[in-house]
Amino acid sequence: MRILVTGGAGYVGSVSVEALLAAGHDVSVIDDLSTGHAESVADGVDVVDGPYTDAAAVAKLLEARRIEVVLHCAARSLVGESLQNPARYFVDNVAGGIALLEAMRAAGTNRIVFSSSAAVYGIPDTSPIVEDTPLRPINPYGETKRSFEGAVWWYGVAYGLRAATLRYFNVAGATERNGEVHDPETHLIPNVLAAIEGGKPLVVFGDDYPTPDGTCIRDYIHVADLADAHLLAIEATAPGDPRTEPSSERGMLVCNLGNGGGFSVRQVIDAAERVSGQAVPHEVGPRRAGDPPVLVASSARASEVLGWQPARPTLDEMVGSAWEWRRRHPDGYATA
Ligand code: UFG
User: Which of 2, 13, 70, 306 is least crowded, fewest Cβ atoms below 10 Å from its Cβ?
Assistant: First the structure.
């Protein structure tokens, strides 16, 4: 299949490109490289260096490459930044996303897989979180993901767009080629590994939560498992596939992805010490605003409807592969 990956030079996008190529697809990437890394895109893939938000240019690209499906991974994705600068999030994630949908409409590309976020749920009342849980985002980032999901839904109703949306929390781990490099880095696992490498000691944001060891529990998913889910979701948007029939009761297919269990911050630290054989310098600090104690997704629908199961579900696989990648790339992509 001919597939365009937006954000294909980012962490999730680049690993998805690897999986699509391995499955024999013809892959194109569009990425403005504002947060992505050109070096992360597999050899032989043509990278269009530009915004996905320019409807006329993207429509031309879709037509020229006869793209059948768009995998939409590009987004602004920092919760903290979204609270400081919501305009950037609404302009890029919502207005930009709609420009992409318009480009698709103009070019007659009517299949999309949207890499969404479990941030759409906010602080849910029940756990594990199922897809029908009310969407009550607590930050602009989550709100923009919800808004774009809504647009995709209604494009399905009105224009017959076939769509699948995946919602997931904490992506982790690395492949041989690609790992996680953000600047600034706010995520737990990279910060834990940076602390081992002699960076700043890790600050554990609170150990007085109502959880077994007092630290927050999150649902970590290996980035390669997420890429597998993207592949399965793309297949589910095939013409005639009842799972994404726009006129069906369900319409857009929505699936959560997770391990179904979750791990605490302390368990992540323990795993990092196991895989590296070194201590994680850390101290306990105050809670971070907006952090719910437990966020765990139910992946029952992804299993039932997509046939997806995480193949690398352990923390040792996720933290271990991230550690290996960092050892091979001590300066991130500068040593790719
Ligand atoms: N944490 C620390 N110290 C750190 C960094 C994180 O203790 O230096 C803790 C956090 O308090 C949290 C856990 O580690 O309990 C995970 O935090 P991350 O920042 O790695 O990830 P979040 O769970 O906050 O964010 C994830 C995704 C977001 C998504 C959000 C939805 O990364 O994209 O879930 O709630 F929006």
Answer: 2
